[in-house]
Amino acid sequence: MLLEDLNVILKVAEFRSITAAAACLDMSTATASAAIKRVERALDVELFIRTTRRLRLSIAGERYIPHCEQALQMLDKAKQNVKDDLDIIDGELRISVPSDLGRHLILPWLDEFMQTHTGVSVKLHISDSNIDFYRDPVDIALRYGSPTDANLYGFKICNVPRVLCATPEYLENNGCPKHPHDLATHNGLLYQLHDMLHDVWAFSQQGKTIKVKMQSNRTSNDAELVRRWCVSGKGIAAKSSLDMSNDLLSNKIIPILTEFTLNPTELWLICSSRQTITPAVRLLREHFKIKCAEVYSQLIDKEILTKADVDERS
User: Fold this and answer.
1) Domain range holding 192?
2) For residue range 133-176, what is the model confidence (pLDDT) as tens digits?
3) Quick one: which of 249, 227, 236 has its CA closest to 300?
4) I need a surface site. Which of 35, 104, 128, 175 has the fewest CB within 10 A?
């Protein structure tokens, strides 16, 4: 009987399904079944009662599982304490990142981090959806906006100003808006997450809020597609300045209506539990903060953003 077998037992008890537990642990159903048999053989009891339709804990299983879970938690804590004492930076980082930010900035930043810390491996999950740590095979996630679940642990990386932008060619052909109300005659490139369509853009100036409902012939649930449409001159996008930083710095697109402020957001690193806040995760958090600061320094130097834009609400 191996420690890995006990992890399988706990997952099967959690999901009440060998198939679901195997999928969560990224192994075959046969491998998971073999692990259960090894544990039951070692204990000389059946932990699960199986029928053709369902699986449930036996009386012995109900008594054994809580002790097993507690024992594994103690072992994990002891292992982590040893690593903390030795300041060892290794292990697997299972991280979820947004589509656009992930592909264009986080991917090279992770490569740089792994080049420095060669004992670290990464499983990267690309998604714009809200993360579900109980469903998705990840331990940490980068997301725009602070976590709303009080059971999660969140670390703010930076403020993220949003920018209204388009290509010079699009503006030459369609005119450059001087006021948010002028956007009514332009094509907005819209982002939709599940059933929430972001077609109302809110601007502020001198304490006043202006909301504009955009017309559009292009909508996507993938933020990277919105960026691609913008760079190819298909319309105007309201996007994170981080997402658009490379295109802004290369002059592929230009910011517009800069005297008006789009509602800003924040970038957060979210951890599923205290146990996932390892030395590697803490270093990765600092790495992301440094890299974001470098991007904003370039955007400020080119007068695309101001220091006040980045420092707002810090």
Assistant:
1) 162-263
2) 777 788 999 999 888 888 888 999 999 999 999 999 999 999 99
3) 249
4) 175
